[in-house]
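Task card 7
Instruction: Convert sequence to structure tokens.
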Amino acid sequence: MIEEYKLFSTPLFISQYTEFDINIVKDLFYDIEKNDTNPWEYCKGSYSSFNKEKSNQILEFEQCNDLKKHINNLIANINERLGIPNNFFLKESWFTINRAHSFHGVHNHNPSLWSGVFYVTADENASAITFINDNLNTNWPYAGKISKPSELTSSGSTFKVQTNDLIIFPGWLKHKMEYHTADTERITIAFNYSNIG
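Output:
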């Protein structure tokens, strides 16, 4: 007899938030991009409000108030479920407009407690998000090709996304945006919550 233990599971939460006026928010985002005299073009042709003083807290804008309340409620429920104290606060939030041929390499949001992304627009051709299994940053399993990858042997998990998807994950979890080949825009609101000052 042999007993199997799955150690150190990683929580990840996906839901839909449909009570959101996409057009009003898109107009706000385009206006911010248009008036940015020193844009940070992290990927050619795309735009992000990250590290912009006022627009780096996009969830504080009136157009995003209901979304922020929804995220706060979700995080409070998640913390309660996991036994984490509910002394969290929104640290930062920003929007990104990804256009054709954009991507975002592997990164994480340490030391945030929770990070997440809300998909304002993401059609069937929108690039996916991939989460990296950091437990496998060595060469394990090194006994050859895995015939049926599982949560224990896979080096990552990729999720197709769609408009109104909301994903919440631990800030330390490495992830990347896959290459966006579509001509349509993939617009997101990303956020970090912390419980330390």
